[in-house]
Amino acid sequence: MTSERAYHHGDLRRAVLTAALDVIRTEGPDALSLRDLARRAGVSHAAPAHHFKDRTGLLTAIAAEGYALFAAELAEAPDLRERGVRYVRFAAEHPAHFHVMFRPELHRADDPELLAAKDRASAELRAGVTGLPATGRGEDDRLAGVAAWSLAHGFATLLLSGNLDGAVGARDPEAVFRSLAELLFVPESS
Fold first, then answer.
1. Same domain for 15 and 83?
2. 144 and 84 in a common domain
3. 20 vs 3, 17, 67, 81, 97, CA distance in Å?
4. Cβ-count burial of 148 within 10 angstroms (0-12 exposed, 13-18 middle, 19+ buried)?
5. What is the mean pLDDT of residues 133-142?
């Protein structure tokens, strides 16, 4: 567990995380350097290591924070379609977290905080699938979950990379995603 000790300028851990998220958002995770982040925070080059040990530790903390925020966002959705909308919303509002979360080579896969946050997010994703009628998706909940995840993740990734600019245009990406989900996950009529 990292220390939450405050420094003369405030919470160094939070300051480094915020600076890292800014760098990732503008330049990508490969541009991260603890030395540069320390300079931005106005502390010695060794100070961030007290909280994160190394660059991988910092990226692990970002992924864990991202999964925790993601789980909270998904928990507010009443059904599978709205979980997909929340997925897209999360990616648009937290692009740096999103980029790091789904690049496992960037973080420590065995980190307990990361594993717990990923488990919460996975449980929220699965909860949306359990609400589907069995006749609408076949018998395999897992494959239905993969299909829903693929749609939401693919849409969010394409949106963040600018590949949907022409298709989405000025329309609300969440509304566009709802329309797509309705096309593919139509409940069977009685």
1. no
2. yes
3. 18, 5, 16, 32, 10
4. buried
5. 59
